[in-house]
Amino acid sequence: MSALLAAQSVSMAVGRATLVDDVSLEISAGEMVAIVGPNGAGKSTLLRMLSGDLRPSRGMIRLKQRDLHAYRPRELAQHRAMLSQHVNVTFPFTVEEIVTMGAGESPRAVARGLVEAALDEVGLTQFRFRQLPTLSGGEQQRAHFARVLVQLACGEARHGPGLVLLDEPTSSLDLRHQIDLVETARRRAAQGTAVIAILHDLNLAMRFADRVLLLHRGRLAIDGDRTAAVTAETIRQIFEIDAVIAHTDQGVPFLLPQTMRPV
Amino acid sequence: MSAVAERPARADQDRGGTSLRPAATLTILCLLAALAGAALIALTVGAAGIPLARLPAALGLWADGTAGPLQARDQLVVWSIRIPRIAAAAMVGALLATSGAIMQGLFRNPLADPALVGVSSGGAFAAAAAIVFTDSRFGASLYFMQHQLLPVAAFAGSLVTTIVLYAIASRGGRTSIAIFLLGGLALAAIANAGIGLLVFVADDRQLRDITFWLLGSLSGATWSKLTTLAPVLVIALIACHSVARGLDVLVLGEAEAFHSGVDVEQLKRISIVLVSAMIGVAVSICGVISFVGIVVPHLLRLVIGPGHRLLLPASAISGAVLLVGADTVARTIVAPAEMPIGILTAAIGAPFFLAMLLRQRGLVSL
C-alpha cells in the first residue's frame, strides 16, 4: 500500500539557520506516528510543513500522491486536519460554535451529529453553551481537539481516510485527559486515519505510537518501531540525560530519568 | 447520594443547558422595528415640527382635501430635507458599523476600527486638501464644483490610504496583521499632520469648511448623494455574506483558519477592499464620524454572540438606528442651530471605548 503522506528530502531554512534538514518520511493510512525530540529540534516546523502551512525551502511533500501545495485550502482541509499548539480566541464564541467550525460548509444536519459525537468524545458536552474564553486551558485544548475531530470526520466521509496532525495536543491536559486524547487518536488510526503527533512525554509516545520519529537539530535521528527506537543510549545522546528504560508486564517500555538526584 | 445525583443536572442548567442566544430572524425583525421607530421620530422632530397626525398628509399618503400652505410646507420639509437626511444617516450608520465589525474580525480584536488605521483620516485629508485647493488662486476655476469634488477626493483618499497600507503590510502574498495595524497608525499620523498643515495655511473661510467637514455632519444630505451611497451599501452587504464564515474561523488565528480550509489571503484582500470602499463613501458623504464602528458591534456581540453571519447584517441595521437617533439629537439639541454629529458620537463613543479598554486590558494581546 502506498503512503498517504510522503516527504522527500524536506528542508526549511530561515536566514542562515536550518530548522529542518533533509528529512524524508512516509506515513501510511492507519498508522500512528509520534514525533519526539528536545526543544528547538524542528518538530513544529516539520509539522507545519507537513500541514501545508509552511512551504519547504527544499524538497517535496505529497499527500495522497499529489503535491501538497497543489491543493486549494478548502480542498486540503478535507484531506488533512491540524491542531496547532496555541489557539487564542478573543471573541466570546461558545464551545459548540467553535467545534462546529470544524464542519466547514457541510450540511447543518450532518454537522450537528458529528459535533455532538465529538463533544461527547472529549467530555465537554455539559460545557457546550459556555463561552470558550471562560474555560481553563486544558478544556479549551479539548474543545479545539473536538473541532479537529469534526473536520476530520467531515473530510473522511467524502474522501476516505485522511491525515490528522497534532502539535503537542496534551500540553495543557491532566493525566486522565492526556490518555483520553491519545486513545481517541488511536481509535481514529484503527479506522484508517494517519495520525502524526508531537509528544513531549516519551512514555506516552512509546505506549501509543506505532512508530517514533526522533528529531535532533533539524535532522531525523531515528525513525523506528516504538519498542526499538528509544534506548538509554539515544536518550543520553539526544536529551543529554541518563535514563533507565524498563518494561511493563505486557512488554511496553517506559522511561525513568535518572539525572535528577535526590537532595 | 441524592445530592450527588442532582448536581450534574443543576450544573448543566447553571452553565446554560440551552443556548441563550436569540434566534437570528427575531433579532433582525426587532432591529428593523427599532429602525422604523427611529425614522418615524426623526421625521416628526426638528426645527419645523411636524406632529404625527400631520405626517401621513405630509408624506402624501392621502390627500384629504384640506391642502393648504401648511401641508405644502410639511411636504417640502419631509421630502426635500428630512427623508434624504434620515436615509443618509441610516446608510452611513450601516456602512460605519459594518466596516467596523469586518475590521475587528480581520484583526481578531474588538478594539480595531477603520478610524484607527488611518482609512478615515486619509479620506478627511484628501477632502481638506480639496477645500483649500479649490479656494486657492490655482484651483479657483474649480471652485464652482467644490461640492462635487469633495466626495470624490475623500473617496480617493480612503482608497489610496488602504492600498498603500496593503502594500506596506503584505509581503509575498501574505499580510501581517501587526504590520497592518502599526502601518495604519503611521499613515493616520501622516494624514493628521497633513490636515494640521492645511489648517495652518487655510484662511478663515476655508478653516470653517475644513473644521465642519472634520467634525462630521449630515446636513449636506441630498437625493443625489443617496444615489452614491445606496449602490455601495447594497453591494457591500451582499459581499459581507461571502466573508462571514471566513471571519468566524479567522478568530482561531491565520494558521488555524488555513488548516480549516479558509483561503486566508483572499479573505483578507476582500475584507480590506470592502472596508476601504465603505469608509471612503461614508467619509465622502459626511466627514469623519468616529466610534460607531466600535460601539455597535461590541454591544451586539454581548447579545447575539460573535458569529459574523448574523453580526454583520445586525451591525448594519443597528448602526443605522444609532446614527438616525444621534442625528435627530444633533439637529434638535441646540435648535435652530445644529451640533456636528461627529462631536456627539465621539462624546458618547470615546468614554465607551475607554471602558471597553479597561475591561479588556488583560484579555487582548496585540
How does this model look, in words?
The complex is a heterodimer of chains A (263) and B (366). Chain A is α/β, with parallel strands linked by helices. Chain A contains nine helices and twelve strands. Chain A has a six-stranded mixed beta sheet, sandwiched between helices. Chain A has a four-stranded antiparallel beta sheet with strand order 2-1-4-5, with helices on one face. A two-stranded antiparallel ribbon of chain A has the order 11-12. In chain A, a hairpin with a 2-residue loop joins strand 4 and strand 5. In chain A, helix 4 packs across helix 5. Chain B has a two-stranded antiparallel sheet with strand order 1-2. Residues 1-16 of chain B have low confidence and may be disordered. Chain B starts with a helix and ends in a 6-residue tail after the last helix. By secondary structure, chain B is mainly alpha-helical. Chain B has one domain (84-360): ABC transporter involved in vitamin B12 uptake, BtuC (Orthogonal Bundle), CATH 1.10.3470. Classes of the chains: A alpha/beta (263), B mainly alpha (366). The interface between A and B is large, with 38 and 34 residues.
What's the topology here?
The complex is a heterodimer of chains A (263) and B (366).
Chain A: E1 5-14, E2 17-27, E3 32-36, H1 43-51, E4 58-63, E5 66-67, H2 73-76, E6 80-83, H3 95-100, H4 108-122, H5 137-159, E7 163-167, H6 175-190, E8 194-198, H7 202-208, E9 211-216, E10 219-225, H8 226-229, H9 232-239, E11 243-247, E12 253-257
Parallel strand pairs in A: 3-8, 3-9, 6-7, 7-8
Antiparallel strand pairs in A: 1-2, 1-4, 4-5, 9-10, 11-12
Helix pairs in contact in A: 4-5
Chain B: H1 2-14, H2 24-44, H3 55-59, H4 69-107, H5 119-135, H6 146-169, E1 170-171, E2 174-175, H7 177-201, H8 204-215, H9 223-250, H10 254-259, H11 264-286, H12 292-304, H13 308-332, H14 341-360
Antiparallel strand pairs in B: 1-2
Helix pairs in contact in B: 2-4, 2-13, 4-9, 4-11, 4-12, 4-13, 5-6, 5-7, 5-8, 5-11, 6-7, 6-11, 9-11, 9-13, 12-13
